[in-house]
Amino acid sequence: GEVGLLFTNQTVDSIRSWFNEFSKDDYARSGCVATERIVVPAGEVFRGYTKEPFPNNMEPQLRQLGIPTLLRQGKITIDYDYTICEEGDVLTPQQSHLLKHFWIKMAIFKVELLGCYHKNSGEYTAYNETSGTGSNDNSDGSGME
What we know:
By secondary structure, this protein is of the alpha+beta class. It has helices at residues 12-21, 59-64, 93-101, and strands at 24-26, 38-40, 43-44, 46-47, 52-53, 69-72, 75-78, 82-85, 107-109, 115-118, 123-126. It starts with 11 loop residues before the first helix and ends in a 19-residue tail after the last strand.
C-alpha cells in the first residue's frame, strides 16, 4: 500500500487512538472479497442509493465491463437480472469497476501506523502490525515529533 509521514506535536497515545478509530467506507479493488451479492434488476439501469439513471453515453462502457446492455429510447436497459458479484467472490477488475459505477462501497479504508520517530531521543519505535504494540513502545504518552 501507500506510505506517508505525519509530523505532529500531539502525543503518541492520542495519534494512535485517533488512527485506531478512523475508518471510511471505500470502493473495493480487484482482489478484494465481495461482502454481499449485487444484482442489477432487469429494465432500466439505475445506480447508487439515489437510483439515478445512468447517462446514455455510459452504455458502451457498461457493456465492455460485461453487462448485456441495450440502449432503448435513450435509456440504458437490460433484458434480465445481471449479477455483478456473489458474496465471497474475489473481485475481478471488471467487477470492481462496475461496483464503483454503481456507487457500491464494499471496502473499509484504514490507516495502519508502522512506527514512530521520537525527535528528542532520536529513537524509532516500530509497531507490531497485528497488535498495534511497539517493540520500543513509549508507553508514557510523551510527545511525538
